[in-house]
Amino acid sequence: MAENRIPEDYLPEDRLPHEGGPEEGAAPPEPGAEAAPVETRGLGWVIVPALLGALIGAVVGVAQATHPSAAAGKAAKDVLLGGGLAGALVGAIAGGVFGIFVWVVFPYKGGNPHAPRPAAEEQKEAGEKPL
Fold this sequence. Notes:
Elements: H1 44-65, H2 76-105, H3 119-126
Helix pairs in contact: 1-2
């Protein structure tokens, strides 16, 4: 029976036999040779600022509602409740927008691992004296 072979035109570049691809009997690559996984920020970076914004906004809203001019002809309970809810809504939106900004613009914890390193840092690792 004839052996089924894939023509070299259809092999991926890293698997071509004449270009030093993996040889038969060669040891598999070490598992530690891969880059460490990159840790990203979770949704907590959006939810927590939104909750903090709602809390702070509610306090500010209630404080504004206690101003004497705000309670003109209304029950105190309605004024405080309305001020607290309005402040909480504005604070939650502001905190959520801030959290989404941080989550999208700065997705990696501890800095971007793909960013180029400064030359001074590379010289320090190589043992050279920075200029």
